[in-house]
């Protein structure tokens, strides 16, 4: 079958493309931004890419594709989509294709939640892989224990990052409704995606729909510390529920929160000890809970906590999760995907636990749809409290611009004695300010869910140049 994918260069749709190719299909695709690394990864698998969404590309095929798979970046008015509709060509969404053609009949382990989906999915996938289960998987990032972010797999098991974002312009249900998991991990739940959800209750309803799809001989692994998830479960659960959390009232809990690991407790009994590898890139309470949830989920298919802990001793986190980009003059620059206030706070907490009293300079781009709408702006100062200095960037024009005053929002972090937080509309000015302030021993944490104009490397270069100039004077 020839499948043509619209919006192929996103992480999810790129994963769909890779899996379809591994399943033996001829795969082509198009996107508005065809560039590395996704473009090179796809082309290496024999997937032809076309720049843009011009309907003229339909004339390039010797025979028309058998099916068009539509990414949720595509909306009505897209010229190629309009041509597909006008010509009555067959189309479906990425999640529906995956659910029907890949996941059907398999034991799906789905990882859902506002935060930590990618890391937890990577942990769970690695636990299965380490223990010989040869799972298929689709992870919304690049897991460092694997060479690709998606794989068809050689067994009945499939781990998927289960996103609550909508499926496509013609299907406004959450993506995860299509996955029909037998093991469903509900990691946490907060208000997010303000561009498609009116409030937290609307998201809870989608999570309840997911719960409705879990068979009675399946399992719900639920964060017992999340009130929103308790409301979801209270609306009805037809599968057994196992809760996890710090408190030992939960079936799965933690005994310690040491920087390099923790003890797994099941029903009050110590079951295993997780010790992170020195280069694992995981730290903080949130990653301990992510790991605990992965252990509980793996236990459902017969992997003991002790065997899961052995796997996690060799786990390496996903790219862009407190990833060290470089070190110049004793100053370390990190990259992290954090963009929601809760994720920002937990990421800073994790880094603070690692570096102790050393200075942390937080460099932030609030560019998610929710942040641009200003829904979470009041929570931003508190989420940055653990940083010694804050440098925030908000473009002044274009589609990335904020609809609110960044300086005004960050003002509570400042005082009459000092300005801890500064806002910029010019990336060069931000880079220069950070490089001027940074000194040996500092840790610069860059947080954005986008490329942030390559500011990580720009900061490292500016620090290097400043060091060179100082040595010459």
Characterise the protein shown here.
32% of the residues lie in helices and 22% in strands. By secondary structure, the protein is of the alpha/beta class. It folds into 3 domains: 2-94, 3-Layer(aba) Sandwich (Rossmann fold); 105-312, Mur-like, catalytic domain (UDP-N-acetylmuramoyl-L-alanine:D-glutamate ligase, 3-Layer(aba) Sandwich); 323-472, Mur ligase, C-terminal domain (Protein-Tyrosine Phosphatase, Chain A, Alpha-Beta Complex). Strands 8-7-9-6-12-13-14-15-16-17 form a 10-stranded mixed β-sheet, sandwiched between helices. The radius of gyration is 23 Å and the shape is globular. 49% of the residues are buried. Residues 2-100 form the Mur ligase N-terminal catalytic domain.
Give the strand tally: 23
Secondary structure category? alpha/beta
Q: Terminal Cα separation, in Å?
A: 67 Å
Assembly state here?
single chain
Count of alpha and pi helical runs: 15
What is the highest CATH level, the class of the largest domain? Answer: Alpha Beta
Order of strands across the biggest sheet?
8-7-9-6-12-13-14-15-16-17
> Roughly what percent helix?
25-40%
Describe the main β-sheet briefly. Answer: 10 strands, mixed
User: Which of globular, elongated, flat, extended, rod-shaped describes the shape?
Assistant: globular
Low-confidence stretches: none
Would you tell me the overall average pLDDT?
89
The CATH topology label of the largest domain is UDP-N-acetylmuramoyl-L-alanine:D-glutamate ligase
* Radius of gyration, whole Å: 23 Å
Number of domains: 3
> Beta fraction of the residues?
15-25%
């Amino acid at each position: 079958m020839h499948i043509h994918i619209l919006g192929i260069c996103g992480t999810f749709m790129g994963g769909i493309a890779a899996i379809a190719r591994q399943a033996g299909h001829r795969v082509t695709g198009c996107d508005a931004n065809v560039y590395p690394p996704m473009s090179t990864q796809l082309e290496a698998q024999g997937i032809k890419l076309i720049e843009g969404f011009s309907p003229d590309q339909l004339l390039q095929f010797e025979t028309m594709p058998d099916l068009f798979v539509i990414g949720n970046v595509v909306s009505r008015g897209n010229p190629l989509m309009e041509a597909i509709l006008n010509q009555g060509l067959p189309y479906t969404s990425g999640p529906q294709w995956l659910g029907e053609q890949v996941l059907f009949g398999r034991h799906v382990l789905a990882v859902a939640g506002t935060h930590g989906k990618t890391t937890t999915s990577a942990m769970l996938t690695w636990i299965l892989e380490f223990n010989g289960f040869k799972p298929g998987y689709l992870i919304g990032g690049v897991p460092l224990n694997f060479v690709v972010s998606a794989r068809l797999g050689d067994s009945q098991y499939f781990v998927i990052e289960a996103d609550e974002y909508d499926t496509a312009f013609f299907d406004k249900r959450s993506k995860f409704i299509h996955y029909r998991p037998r093991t469903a991990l509900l990691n946490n739940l907060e208000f997010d995606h303000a561009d498609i959800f009116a409030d937290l209750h609307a998201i809870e309803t989608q999570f309840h729909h997911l719960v409705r799809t879990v068979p009675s001989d399946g399992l719900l692994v639920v964060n017992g510390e999340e009130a929103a998830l308790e409301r979801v479960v209270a609306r009805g659960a037809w599968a057994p529920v196992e809760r996890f959390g710090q408190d030992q009232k939960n079936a799965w809990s933690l005994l310690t929160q040491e920087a390099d690991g923790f003890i797994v407790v099941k029903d009050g009994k110590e079951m295993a000890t997780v010790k992170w590898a020195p280069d694992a890139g995981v730290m903080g309470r949130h990653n301990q809970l992510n790991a605990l949830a992965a252990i509980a989920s793996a236990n459902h298919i017969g992997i003991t906590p002790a065997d899961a802990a052995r796997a996690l001793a060799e786990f390496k986190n996903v790219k862009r999760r407190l990833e060290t980009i470089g070190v110049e003059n004793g100053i370390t620059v990190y990259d992290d995907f954090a963009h929601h206030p809760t994720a920002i706070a937990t990421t800073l907490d994790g880094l603070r636990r690692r570096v102790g009293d050393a200075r942390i300079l937080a460099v932030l781009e609030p560019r998610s749809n929710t942040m641009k709408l200003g829904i979470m702006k009041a929570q931003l100062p508190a989420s940055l409290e653990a940083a010694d200095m804050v440098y925030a960037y908000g473009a002044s024009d274009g589609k990335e611009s904020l609809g609110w005053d960044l300086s005004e929002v960050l003002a509570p972090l400042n005082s009459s004695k000092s300005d801890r937080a500064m806002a910029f509309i010019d990336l060069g000015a931000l880079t220069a300010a950070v490089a001027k302030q940074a000194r040996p021993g500092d840790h610069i944490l860059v947080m954005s869910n986008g490329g942030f104009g390559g500011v990580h490397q720009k900061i490292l270069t500016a620090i290097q140049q400043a060091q060179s100039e100082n040595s010459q004077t």
